[in-house]
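Notebook, student rotation project (T.W.).
Task set for the rotation: take a protein with a known small-molecule partner, predict the structure of the complex, and write up what can be learned from the model alone. Partner molecule chosen: nicotinamide-adenine-dinucleotide. Sequence and SMILES entered below by T.W., checked by me.
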Amino acid sequence: MLKVAVVGLGWWGRIITGLLKENSKLFVARVVDVDPAAEKFALGLGVPFSNEFEKTIKSPDVQAVVLCTPHSQHCEQIVRAANARKHVFCEKPLALNRADVLKAVAACNANGVALAVGHEKRFEPPILELFGMAARGELGTLLQVEANFSQDRFLSMPADNWRLTEKEAPAGPMTATGIHLLDLSIGLLGPADNVLARVRQLGSALVNGDTLALQISFKNGTNALISAILATPFEGRFAVYGSKGWADVRDKAHPEAPEGWVLTSNIRNQQKTTKEYPPSAAVLANLEAFADAAEGRAPYPVPQDQMIENICALEAVFKSARSGNVERVENR
Ligand SMILES: NC(=O)c1ccc[n+]([C@@H]2O[C@H](COP(=O)([O-])OP(=O)(O)OC[C@H]3O[C@@H](n4cnc5c(N)ncnc54)[C@H](O)[C@@H]3O)[C@@H](O)[C@H]2O)c1
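Predicted structure of the complex:
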């Protein structure tokens, strides 16, 4: 049983602590937040509350941290936790630039602790099936990804919320939703070579931008076309096209409360098929995979190279959104 401290008890930290109630692999030993108002939530949970990160990571009762804090803090918190020999699960994005992700990964490796990241889409059953189809060669040579992750949840946030700021969330919807699709694309197509991003404020009061169009060109010559919008109702789609066939996963609801998926595939000379997937707790599956890695039962399924390449490409997306130009990715 991995004893964790959940750090950051906002939207996602509360979802995660809820999911971990009575879990057989992870036990929430502490919750940490700098906002004293979060203590009331901790009381309701019956879990000791602290507002001191440093004290928490020094505690022998804590073996790991689950970081659900603002993006610009991730790198430093990963390094501090790793140096205190605590395993780290960090919500996405691991860092906001290449230099920081390299620092964070190096600190975890130097201290022999596991590092995991909140890309739960990797654990969704139809996405696992799509990756399996690609790996087994059923789709032939992979040609192109088309994907969309949109939602309108941020429309009701106060304008000064950190998630709506250029400092914490460059390129508008990118760190909220686009990053999940970038992660899946890198998982399928490998390291990115260059990116072209356009962020516009078209249909809301979100001055940091509500509409992202992103083209990523990969080193193997393929492309991913990613759409992420914060001013339209929920949409979730990830499709990959290959020389023998294609597969398309559609989410029925946000990962916060999954309602299942539909996987459609069309392989040349076969009947087009549609498969329904019931809801499945992908966020929890990711956390359990982290516990398995921390306790030496199985390697964490997302390779570190891909975690790093994701942030290398993310930095180029930020540059392109600012410059309006195609920007090269500085790879690992
Ligand atoms: N994987 C997903 O699908 C998913 C979904 C939502 C959010 N997230 C990620 O979760 C993270 C948190 O986002 P959120 O929407 O819950 O934000 P939030 O603002 O709702 O919560 C952040 C919390 O962190 C606390 N905090 C800030 N600095 C802190 C510090 N130094 N130590 C301890 N607590 C601190 C704040 O007081 C707040 O309660 C982000 O990385 C975000 O991208 C992931």
